[in-house]
Amino acid sequence: MIAPQPSVVTDADRALVGVDTEPGYHLIEAGMVRRFCEAVGLHDPIYLDAAAAHAAGYPERPIPAGFWCAIQVPGSELQRPRLGGFGTRNMNAGTEFDYLKPAYVGQTLACTARVADIRERAGRTGPMVITVLEYTWRDEAGHAVTRARLTGVRL
């Protein structure tokens, strides 16, 4: 008979679930959006030229959907579970975005983050820990603009 192994997820790790960070603020700058578009080969003028955005009915250049992956928001750094030194490999097990309303160049967005879930599962080679992180960006009026849900696996 094999003795059960203690959990690699500690009570301190579990205490992080559901706790929002303080908001971090991010000014969406035109130059940053332009560099992102150049890096990914996005040439649609509504993202690069204010006149083209206005002609298309936008109040300003909108943020491309993939841009959210490039935003690092100082001040909303998420305290991640420490997992007692468990594991040496991390894998992305899914990234989801909900685009709730458009965001534009020139806006200052607030971002909060939290650990939404942490659970341990038995894998073929031993235990694995699945962590779900959630990020919410809000506009100046406090309305949610975009939500991200990132699932990771630690082996």
Task: Tell me what you see in this structure.
The chain is an alpha+beta fold and 155 residues long. It contains four helices and five strands. The protein has helices at 11-14, 30-40, 45-48, 50-55, and strands at residues 24-27, 90-99, 108-123, 126-138, 144-154. Strand 3 (108-123) and strand 4 (126-138) form a beta hairpin. It is elongated. The relative contact order is 0.24.
**Order of SSEs, N→C?**
HEHHHEEEE
CATH superfamily of the domain at 11-28 and 72-154: Hotdog Thioesterase
- Overall, the morphology is elongated
Name of the CATH class of the domain at 11-28 and 72-154:
Alpha Beta
Structural class: alpha+beta
Low-confidence parts: none
Helix percentage range: 10-25%
Oligomeric form: single chain
Strand proportion: 25-35%
Short description, anyone?
With 155 residues, the protein is of the alpha+beta class.
Keywords:
alpha+beta, five-stranded antiparallel sheet, 16% helix, elongated, 155 residues, 35% strand, 4 helices, Thiol Ester Dehydrase, Chain A
Helix/strand layout:
Layout: H1 11-14, E1 24-27, H2 30-40, H3 45-48, H4 50-55, E2 90-99, E3 108-123, E4 126-138, E5 144-154
Antiparallel strand pairs: 1-3, 2-5, 3-4, 4-5
